[in-house]
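Q: Entry one of two.
A:
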Amino acid sequence: MIRHIGLFILKPGTTAEQVAPWVEAIKAMVVPGLLNHTWGLDLGLREGNASMAAVFDFADEDAYRAWDTDDEHNRIRRELMQPILVRAERCQYRLD
């Protein structure tokens, strides 16, 4: 199993309402091999944290790569994510 983690720094003043269309669009995708995913805005418990995190578990590397290169996923990134994003950091690792 492959775990993909995204940490996102959002533009100052970005609201949960502005993030919601991005998250809902990703949740609506039909992704073969996607086993689980969670999202959350930072609670502000520590200075310097990312604004938001997402964790996705995929059955294998092929499932992750198919999702990462999916046309709809890339449209969502371009149209819904990029306008409110300063920076994204990503990491994938094996859970097996």
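Q: Entry two of two.
A:
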Amino acid sequence: MDAQILGAAAEDYAVHYLKRKGYQIRKRNYRYLKAEIDIIAQIDDFLVIVEVKARTTSIFGKPEEFVTPKKIKLLVSAADEYLQRENIQMEVRFDIVAVLRQHGKWEVSHLENAFYPFDGD
């Protein structure tokens, strides 16, 4: 499966997964400079910044292991911009939804507060 098609399908799957868990989806594919937030959602009093990582095999590692420190910095920067632009005063959490698509089946892992503690290095 083409990586771009897999990524889009995984994001759609992640949105449905989060909605089933009670999340309200506020925005998808929010871009700021070089950063893109896949999903901005809300649950209870948390604004949740969600990075979706998809793979077709776990041979080289779990999907969530491919979120780099550079990617985390970009997400934090984009989240800060979004909060300021929308004048949002909420606690923010960064989650990863890892999607493995193999043998025609979807496997999902939801890692809440995935970047904590984040020291910026």
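A: Comment on entry two: Residues 3-20 form the longest helix (18 residues). The first strand starts at residue 24 and ends at 32.
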